[in-house]
Write a structure and sequence with these properties.
- This is NirD/YgiW/YdeI family stress tolerance protein.
- 6% of the residues lie in helices and 61% in strands.
- The protein has 66 residues and is mainly beta.
- Strands 1-2-3-5-4 form a five-stranded mixed beta barrel.
Length: 66
């Protein structure tokens, strides 16, 4: 997915917004590798969708600035 990390909810959890909406994303430290992105920077994330009940989030396996 491509979008913008518009909000950080805790150490590794973010809200990613793209043109279809918003989703919570977990970016583990070993994937982030001290890279940071501001809300106006486009990022690319690949990962696994985890869903429990009505809530869902993505656990990132790859993270890069576009």
């Amino acid at each position: 997915m491509r979008g913008n990390l518009i909000e950080q909810s805790d150490n590794h959890r973010y809200v990613l917004r793209d043109r279809t909406g918003e989703v919570e994303v977990v970016i583990p430290p070993e994937v982030a590798k001290d890279r940071q992105a501001s809300p106006d920077e486009l990022v690319g994330i690949s990962g696994t969708l985890e869903k429990k009940g009505k809530t869902a989030h993505i656990v990132a396996h790859r993270f890069q600035k576009q």
